Amino acid sequence: MKPLVIGVTGGVGAGKSACLKYIEQKYYCLVIYADPEAAKLRKRGEVCYDALVDLLGAEVLGEDSEIDPARMARKIYEDPSVRSSVNAILHPAVNERIRGIIDRERAAAKLDFVFVEAALLIENGYEQIVDELWYIHTDVDIRRRRLKESRGYSDERIDEILAGQLSEEEYRAHCAVVIDNGDDMIETKKQIDRVLGEHIGGTKRTAK
């Protein structure tokens, strides 16, 4: 049977990674993370390398001639208009890479689930790629606290990030499943188990 493909989205600080870590440990699945795929596509010889160097200049290269993430981030920070150009190069390539992985796993038909985690699933049209979208919801006050504790962000930085993300209503309008991930991870796990249990009807295999 082909795996069910589930896209997981939610605002920064919602705890998507914690939810997916639990899923990876318990379920027979593959989790595809968009950020590491994007990092691979920035490597020398990969499809995005030349275009990014042409756009950002050779000053973003490290001594090994690879694109240095910190230097690239600095260029984007110095000129926010560059971000859209970088995204126009990376996002289509990442989407194509992830599509290829999904197609491979659907053809193999060995897994129960394939999960895709990316910040812009809805904005990048993943409704047309995955079978179902999940929204990991967390109250904004909890998200703010997590971002301060885990990343050391200031209130101003958090305000800036939140302003650029989808609204609660937009997330809920596009997602078939909402997982409420507050401070009680035990309750979050129960929600995940309930939804995935319904999908596989008690035939779950053990994790790899």
| Main β-sheet, spatial strand arrangement | 2-3-1-4-5
**Oligomer state of the chains in this structure:** single chain
Task: Please describe the biggest sheet, giving its number of strands, its sense, and whether it closes into a barrel.
Answer: 5 strands, parallel
- What's the CATH topology name of the largest domain? Rossmann fold
Helical content (DSSP H or I, runs of 4+): 40-55%
Strand content: 5-15%
Total strands: 5
Low-confidence stretches: 202-208
Q: Indicate the CATH class of the largest domain.
A: Alpha Beta
Radius of gyration: 18 Å
General form: globular
Task: Tell me which CATH architecture of the largest domain applies here.
Answer: 3-Layer(aba) Sandwich
Mean pLDDT: 92
CATH superfamily of the largest domain: P-loop containing nucleotide triphosphate hydrolases
- Total separate domains: 2
Order of helices and strands: EHEHHHHEEHHHEH
What structural class should be given to the helix and strand makeup?
Answer: alpha/beta
Helical element count? 9
Distance between the termini: 17 Å
